[in-house]
Amino acid sequence: MSAAAPGSEQAAELPLQVPTRPEPTPRTVLRTVLVVLLVVAAIYLLYLLRRPIGWLVLATFIAVALSGPVNLLSRHMRRGIAIALAYLGLVLIPIGVGAIIVPPLVREMTDLAQNAPRYVQDGQDWITRNDTLSRLDREYNIGDQLQRKAEELPTHLDDAASVLSSVGGTIVSSLFAAINILILSIFMVASGRRWIDWGVAQARPEHAPRISRALDRIAVAVGNYVGGAFLQATIAGATTFIVLTILGVPFAAPLAVTVGLFDLIPLVGATIAAVLVGLVTVFHDFPLATIVWAIWAVIYQQLENTIIQPQIQRRAVETHAFAVLVSVLFGATLFGIVGALLAIPFAASIQIALREWWDYRQAVRVEMPPGVELPQPPERPDEPPARLDLPPGVEPPPADGAA
Asked: Is 212 found in the same domain as 192?
């Protein structure tokens, strides 16, 4: 047997030193608990303030959208007067739309209630001329039930008035929110440039020009988006007016304005407007006008969703059509109609910010002279295997335990 190495017996008797994770101190536990509680409290506070935060977001969107017209008008007049004219035009738009739509709508609803029995009689005459419908009428007594409901319809106008009075509180609260949003946006348009300049001045000097350029590009993108949305709504309203005029449907202009207004709502707006116009065609020339309108509405909606809207918004905000569709779908799923309206400018803002960041990263890279390559990092040396720290004068035992 070979002799053992010196000190091997003493090394074998030493206990193994197993590293252990230090136990958290009470101070660390308390700090972690406080951080978690603060985060939960902040999230709950944001939840409580979700309504005014939403107002601020909408006010910012309106302020950025109107900054272009305000800047254009301020070249020829004082900025205060330019802001007043821009917001006066913004307020007159819904007033003008209501003046075009509401009177014919009220008049037609009244005529519908008064002439409902005659419409039902015309329907019964049409049913009697059709063998299949006549058989169904005899089995289920459809005509008599429609006649009875039509005779009761004028009596329900008082109920409709009571329903309208019950939603008065909702209308008042909506007007209150709209007034607050307009006031907030006016303050943003009047002083927003100074706020932005102050915020940019707080950044590092090498970052300030890029931040300012990114904010200006975002403002232009939002303004272009608003202009593109109104262009899309104008196309929808103009084509609707042409189709309804060809079909001879009455009140083609108010219906076209209605379609253009609903078309501002992404995804579902055009469908809602098509259904409303389809109901009007039922009482004008059923089934011919209704069938023609339904076919046109389906074709146009597909064209708008796949060609018109992506192409207009792609040129307006310089965002790919695929990204436009995806952002609208995500925004509508998360935040409903408001999310769908703000999804495209939000996606454009993210794209602009990422592009500026990427350009900055490329600019700060070290440029080497031609023919000189970047030095490669040294290879990591092979690390020796971990071993125990032994007392001085004690050698570790050999691998096989023998000399």
From this structure: no
